[in-house]
Structure formats: C-alpha cells, structure tokens
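Pilot study result, target chain (84 residues):
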Amino acid sequence: MYNKNGDWIGWFPWSDGDAVTTEGEYLGTVVGDRLLRRVDQPYRGYPGYPGYPGYPGYPGYPGYAGSVSMPYGFADVDPAQLRA
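Predicted structure:
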C-alpha cells in the first residue's frame, strides 16, 4: 500500500482486506472503497515481511467518491499513519 506521494506505508498480508504498516502493526481494513480502522482489532500475530516493493509510479487522482456513513465498530485511520 502506498500513500498519495508514492511512499510505501503498508501491505496486505491476508486476503481479507486488513492492512498492516511496514513494521507489521495493524493499520486499517478496506471497507468498500475506504480504509478504516477497526476499533477493537484482535491481534493476529506478526505477518512477516514481504520485502521492499518497487516504486509504484504516480497514483493519479481518483476523483470524489461522495460521503458514506461510518460502519459500526470502525473509525477513520489517523492521517499521520498514512505518511511515510
């Protein structure tokens, strides 16, 4: 996973949409087209390390998706965690 500047900030070690930081800590969960943080995320163990990925290139601008209500048990990911 990359932030909008193209910096590697995390990855998806499991196939359920849970993302972890480059240090292996829970970052958030993809819900629809949003990255949200589960309020009570159980510890899943250390996910390993995938190796440093290559540069993804410029991500472009995805446009405006509109507003969606927050699902129960989730909160927005802290923007500070989305910076490298």
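One observation from the pilot: Strands lie at 10-11, 18-21, 26-31, 34-38, 74-76. A full batch analysis is planned for the follow-on phase.
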